[in-house]
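User: Predict the full complex structure for these chains.
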Amino acid sequence: MEEWATRILSGVTYGGLLFILASGFTLGIGIMNIVNIAHGALYLLTAYTAWTVFSMTESFVLAIVICCLTGGLLALVLYAGLLKRLHQRPLAQILVTMGVTLIVAEFGVIWWGGFPRTVERPGSLAGSIHLGVVSFPAYRLFMLAAAIVVGVLLWLLLERTRVGALVRASVDDEEMARGMGVDVGRLYFFVFGITGILAGLAGAIGAPFLGAFQGAQFEVLLLALLVSVVGGLGSVTGAFIAALLIGIIDSVGKSLFPELAHFTLFAPLILVLAFRPTGLFGRTQIIK
Amino acid sequence: MATMRRFLALFLAIGLVTACAGDDSGGGSTTVGSTTVGSTTAGSTTVGSTTGGEDLPTLKIGIPLPFTGVVAESAEEMRQTFLMYIEEQGDTLGGLPVEVIFEDTETDAELVVTKTRKLIDDDQVHLLSGPMLAFEGLAMLDSVNEAGISLVGQTGVAADDYTRLEAPTLTAAAKATASQETMPFGSYAYEELGYRRIATLGQDYSWGYQTVGGFQYAFEAAGGDVVQKLWAPIGTTDFAPFVNDIDREVDAVYVTLIGADIPRFVEAYSDFGLKEDIPILSSEDLVAQDAIRFYSGDSAVGIVGVTPFTTSIDRPEMQTFVEAYEERTGNVPTFWGESAYVAAMVIDRTLKYVTETNNIALQDLPDWVRSNGEAFATATREIDLSDTPSSPVTVDEYNRQIRDFYIVELVDDGGTITDSLVETVPAVTQFWTFDQEEFLANPLFSRDFPSE
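Assistant: Here is the predicted structure of the two-chain assembly.
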């Protein structure tokens, strides 16, 4: 009983982190049709930033704020400088953002060096919390809580606000939205900024858990892709459920079938693609 | 207009990609004076070509190292220490001026082969040194054997495999084998630490198999029991499933992990409260100088590990080495750099030895080295290596190191983590205390050998 509670809880909390890593990416690809390969690079850069801020100030809150700002700002520069010109051209976007990824990673080597950097768990989140049956690491619970907050805020933004309605309208029929006087360009600029903020948040929250290191740019990208595809591109609810599901399957799978440890993370992907190619909550034909 | 834009985008993309991928890895012939060491990573460095009045031929040494990729920083350290040794010898090795040609392998097995062939065929080097990583060493082997050229191994020849492979021109006088390091530690865990039941967690590839295997082999030979073996894929993002599955009835957990997996495991282990109950034992990977930089907080304090290199030993040669490297680069050296330094030392002294014993004129020495790869490698058994920075070294009949290993513990030294020497295990051979024939009759250590 206690063993299983720990396993499931480990999976769910890891899933929380996966959702945070993937939310920005799935928003970009689902709503704007932008395949932002540089999502992982934004994670890497902001995770390094979190390390620097935390070592200098010992304030985790400040690290989160600065990482979100950095991520958002970089995303806006990336969009205004490069991606805006590549509207609806996924292949060109992939190449350009791939190039950006390589530049950012190399910058990381020059600035922070080639060795992994791990952010210390902030004091209040370093210990364990007792939850009835089991005692559980506080930082992992924090990851889950943060994921729930991000998920709810995103859902409210998209489903319950005017901006959200405009975004949904533009996704469904861009030409019509333009015809109705919606400034689609500005709207996309705004949404891409949010994907950057989410990447920055992932960097700050992920840094104490995954670390900042050369290779993280692709590792995080892969995890984000995994969650986005399983959840259905662009669906916040889908990404959330997919992330928790993947976390649980990975955790339980590694315990029950240790010899399959290489595959447990990707097993859900194979199953979902086989039976539901659009993902759990995906709509048909998202990429035109 | 649309076509134009498309071309622009493509051009930009290609520009962006090549901007970072391309450094002058073609090994351009940058000739730098003996006082300034070139700033380009790949390329050749000629030192001391004008020594003395006599017209001596230049000895060309080819070294493939991964200057781009995740381990670039340590590869640069290896380049620096190799050149440092040459400069300390008045810009010569074995009395000859030297040209060192560094090639960037970009951490790519196929490129290692290409670059090795280039060094042998195009640059016509007289001998090879390097590489850095285990897979690079195995990838080079065919080309080295084919050319019959001597390879003075650095950190990339640690695999146990070579003792059972055909590699007559290889000398590993500058690097011990994987299981050689952990076997004495297995015995130590049983005899000195008094552990009886141990669980292991290894990275799921050959270095993990061979270090875990060596530890288990010696631990069980002493009478202990490894009751559980777990294998984590490289790049495991969440260690909770492994940590939670560790048998709580064991006396200790033995761990081999690499890179970013190390802090992730150490943090998870401490997160779930195992740190207080079950001590961690490990290979060099968790306690060596470069791993210590990975840690934050005090999660790693208390780990006991075995390593061939630690700056905590009281050894004048180590002190001199550390000071020289710090003065040169501002950094503390690690086992990566020391191995390259010792490789240069091996080349220097073997050259002197063969010159004397075979009465070779310095004029003919480079050509002799190139065409007598096996004799050169064999000669490394005869040279004096009692003064390498980390340990006195001798070389066995398989051209492998016999050396001291150090058992260290990570301690909190006023806010920073550092390693403190616990015990020295002197003169360890690759067979430890076991009978050579019996040991070699076993299969290589693997995922399944020895079994639980």
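Residues 2-119+183-275 of chain A form one domain.
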